[in-house]
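Limitations
The structure tokens in this dataset are predictions for the assembled complex, not deposited experimental models. Users should treat interface geometry with appropriate caution, especially where small molecules or nucleic acid strands are included. An illustrative entry is reproduced here so readers can see what is and is not provided.
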Amino acid sequence: MTAALRFDPIRLPEKCEQLRKEVRAFLAEEIAAGTFDPHKPNREDTDVPEFSRKVGAKGWLGMTWPKKYGGQERSFLERYVVTEEMRVANAPTRRFFVADRQSGPVLLKYAPEHIKMDILPRICRGEICFAIGMSEPNSGSDLFAAKTRATKTDGGYLINGTKIWTSSAHIADYMIAIFRTSPPTKENRRHGLTQFLVKMKQPGIKVNPIGQITGQYEFNEVVFTDFFVPDDHVLGEVDGAWKQATSELAYERSGPERFLETYYVLTELVRAVGKNPDTRSAEGIGRLVAQVHTMRRMSVSVAGMLQAGKEPVVEASIVKDIGTVWEQQLPHRVRDLAAFVEETATNRETLERQLDFAIKTAPKLTIQGGTTEVLRGIIARGLGLR
Amino acid sequence: MAESDNIIVETAEKIFADLADPQTINHDKKDAWKAPLWQALSDAGLPLSWVPEDCGGSGADLADGFALLNAAGRFAVAVPLAETMLAGWLLAQAKISSPGGEMTVLPASPRDKITLNADGSLSGRARGVPFGKAAKHFAVLANGNGGVSIALVDAGQARIEAGLNVGYDNSDIVTLDKAQPITIKPAPKGFDQTRLMLMGGVARSLQIAGALESMLDISVRYSNERVAFEKKISKFQAVQHNLARLAGESAAALAAATSAADAIANTAAFNDEVFLEATAAKIRCAEAAEKGGAIAHQVHGAIGFTNEHILHRYSLRALAWRDDFGSESHWAVELGKLVANRGADELWPLVASR
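Predicted assembly:
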């Protein structure tokens, strides 16, 4: 066999189920207290600092990290449960999610000790927000085309250039970004990029909001003008960021957030059709549930591989490819079925409002975190085609 | 699941490789390969792997049997291995011993019913019975006034109208008209036709997943050999993306099927969670057979459409297997009804329960 893809049926251990109950109880309390509305994914106010701090106080941020940095040394599968419950409840996770999923693990691996001791506990307490500076104007998914320069100077680097499509930069305290420290070589166009920790809200950084077709402001353009980054904020190897960036992607690409972003419309459709659906609605719902179940089984399987210390790059790319294509199509399939929902369904207005938002959200889902085309290239490489 | 640490799967794969090589079979127009293959499988005790030793079988556990079916799918084996395994498993539910030889189960569709008459005979019509014509015995699930019964019936008691499925394997109409069973016993409490159909459906899911693994494998190999426009076609991005999608469908099928098999093998109760796993496997694997098969044929160009090429051995069988023990449309309706009946707020707890 050329491929030998495996998706073993990993089950979440018992302690995950206990944790799941705790998370559900916490979310139910927050909903009851009016912190957020689970039926309104299109909030303008997704930045809810108090909520982040409460999640941190529960010990649900940096869950897998060492205790000396504020972590809990819990398993990757336990973190998985927290992520999926938050996502399904439409909880306002924007402020802490990037730091928890990606930035924290990067710092753990590559930051000097004093920076880890300073920043990681604050992430765990839900006090700070991170952004990721990868894409640039005219580069996007082509990471290695990044041009924003980091020029060596006394005690650090001067940054000049522009990052774009940077989610949460307007609220972020820090950014982990890739800048060009040398030109690419003829042999290796990936050479010459370095990863830096950038402290936001400093002179030399300008954050310009970019409106989205959903009506939200989440993206930003971030312009650096002679912005100074000290030497100890270099993360990992100078000119060697490409090796670092690619090994993190399995975490970004296989989680529950990669197939559950529009899930709420399915729940609302089930509510609208009621207890005795017609055959067409029943079949449509049955297929969608079979599909989401299958993706979740694949995603949990990859989480199990990560927990076991493997690097399932191809498997994670497969989960993101079919997961994001699915969550992109979901609002449209639900719309097909909703055409037959009774006018009198009590949640009809909620369903219509959600569909409107989900249909507008859908186009971005197969772009963020690596486009479908890039992922299929990675899968093709895994199959031995390139 | 390329290489296995499972002794049953290793044994089966060796037999399949020696006696069921798809290329050899494809050249043999006379089915002469079937007898030695069946003999070797029987000698190894594989058709009765789900039958306890005290019922005449080899007493393998459910998980090993499911892995064996996945391997059989990778070779697109066209002998009634899955059917005999299912029949033996069904009989064993009522502690009925399995005879030797080919068997299959009645009914093979949730839309057909066999009735136990007041005089102890069996009547009914079962359509789409895989390998009905090849079976020496039928394992029958029948409904009567006293509830559900399981029976062993000699094939001579049945009227058979032979048919072929999309994959050119026998798929027959089997009619029982006051047939006298060899043995009949009550089914265990709670055992019903749905459970038999879903067990069959999960067996087919594993076979479909196996066939897709092989379709991916031979498509990747072909794309690395075939040259067009002065390049290997594997170097064209459009072909690479198609193969990446095929890998996705194959992976989804394998994940859904192995998860359902694991659920059945490790859960005593047949609850809503197991129902979700089993129906989802059949639905998703059938969808993958359609999408994945189309891509495999596209990559092979016209050559994959010929009798001479082995691709159809996998693609057509995977498509045919969608129909057995309830199609994906049937199970989607049933799953949709279950979900609607539990209510919107119970959907996520159901999905997250496994």
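Some entries come with short summary sentences. For this one: The longest strand of chain B covers residues 122-130.
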